[in-house]
Amino acid sequence: MKAETLKKAILQYAMQGKLVEQNPEDEPASVLLERIKAEKEQLIKDGKIKKEKPLPPITEDEIPYELPKGWEWVRFSECIDVRDGTHDSPKYQTTGYPFVTSKNLNNGQLDFSNINYISEEDFKKFSERSYVDNEDILFAMIGSIGNPVIVKKDREFSIKNVALFKKSNFISVKYLYYYLMYIQEILKSNASGAVQSFVSLSTLRAYLFALPPRKEQERIVEKLEQILPLVEEYGKNEEKLSKLNSTLPDKIKQSILQHAVQGKLVPQNPSDEPASVLLNRIKAEKEQLIKDGKIKKEKPLPPISEDEIPFQIPDSWEWVKLGDLCSINPRNIAEDDLDVGFIPMTRINDGYLGGHTYENKKWKDVKSGFTHFQTGDVVVAKITPCFQNRKSTIISGIPNKIGAGTTELHVIRDNTRIINMRYLLLLVKTEMFIREGVKNFTGTAGQQRVGKDYIMNYIVPLPPLDEQQRIVTKVEELLSIVESLKR
């Protein structure tokens, strides 16, 4: 059960007389009401409060639940003096008297950090009928209805659009506070107002109050103050657990990918052709493609230094720069009327699994001003936050196997068709690739990007070809499991 739901359930039990046992020897609430009535008559006689218009008697249809013996249903104004603050909007000042509104009632506390101030003249005018004493209760009537606060006054202030429940000698202030907490959700759901929800003073005065015997009020408060701190602690732990649950799947995925590219996810097979031989085959194939005029010869990249190597890899693996393996951001040549796939950034999935959709276009409409790619290419978003969100995928299923898309992509193409591109895809989704890419961002805030040099010079831990396939198979299996656990 959620902490907030548990808290509401406990308050409901308390206000239905189910949280503590009744004591037949307690003076019943009916006698308490007689005392309250006598006190009110004396206050009216002394001119301290005004006589109010009698409220209609409580009907059977109004009663929401049955009360224990000794309790009474009563309207608030029959036992408590309920007032409200001014509805005027005075001229605010930078100093003077604090002017408390609903925004200043925060989690059971008066929040003076974001307060308006009024003059002494306005303070006296507004406080004439709604002067706030210690242990009175404030209750927001507009906006975020409720948020009751027991006043512990260290300064004079006035109130606006806030109900004031005056303390009584016959009703526990804390019991009243918890009762208001209990009914605030009901009042919110029944509130009116086209622009902003509000509850009227007449509604609060006429609202039903479940009144227990005085001693039982104290027992209820004592029990609530034992239980609710535990619920509060449970809520904090629930938040921690919720945060852990929300972040744990990503952390597991990051760990899976990191283990994969370090050679720790699947066992090595001594009979696999080592990556050094694979690199020689790739080099020979590239030289043949250059000789045949199918790709251009590129300027050699600087060699990998010892300082660049971030971790140890198995003996059968090799470190190689991505630009030495693949072409980065190549261009396509095609007939203008050819149907092709067009992929804006919104059509590329984020996260660890990749995937994309596309729109049908003619090549002539997209060949200029867009990024070129073809089936089998790995594309990587280069702009924040798409880069950090892992908007990267392998192009597949597009018409005639070529296409174009958003300019905010880097394209990685294996012209030799030897490398397992799904291995390179998982590589660009690793936390290390993302973290180092962010360090190399250029551009202004909100428009920062990873440059082509970062992609070209990124060093790849290259496994034997057969191991690449085993790694990809295992990663996809594990990521699928984590996704199902997340759901």
Offer a concise description of the structure.
Helix content is 38%, strand content 16%. By secondary structure, it is an alpha+beta fold. The longest helix has 48 residues, at 214-261.
Question: Could you explain how this protein is built, in words?
Answer:
- The protein has 14 helices and 21 strands.
- The chain is of the alpha+beta class and 487 residues long.
- It folds into 2 domains: 3-234, DNA methylase specificity domains (Adenine-n6-DNA-methyltransferase TaqI, Chain A, domain 2, Alpha-Beta Complex), CATH 3.90.220.20; 262-486, DNA methylase specificity domains (Adenine-n6-DNA-methyltransferase TaqI, Chain A, domain 2, Alpha-Beta Complex).
- Strands 2-10-7-8 form a 4-stranded antiparallel sheet.
- Strand 7 and strand 8 form a beta hairpin.
- The longest helix is centred in the middle third of the chain and has 48 residues, at 214-261.
- The model has no long low-confidence stretch (mean pLDDT 93).
What key phrases describe this protein's structure?
487 residues, alpha+beta, Adenine-n6-DNA-methyltransferase TaqI, Chain A, domain 2
- What's the mean pLDDT score? 93
- Count of all domains: 2
- Give the % helix: 25-40%
Low-confidence segments, given as residue ranges, are none
CATH topology of the largest domain: Adenine-n6-DNA-methyltransferase TaqI, Chain A, domain 2
Through-space gap between termini: 19 Å
CATH architecture classification of the largest domain: Alpha-Beta Complex
Strand order of the largest sheet: 2-10-7-8
Over all CA atoms, what is the radius of gyration?
36 Å
The CATH class assignment of the largest domain is Alpha Beta
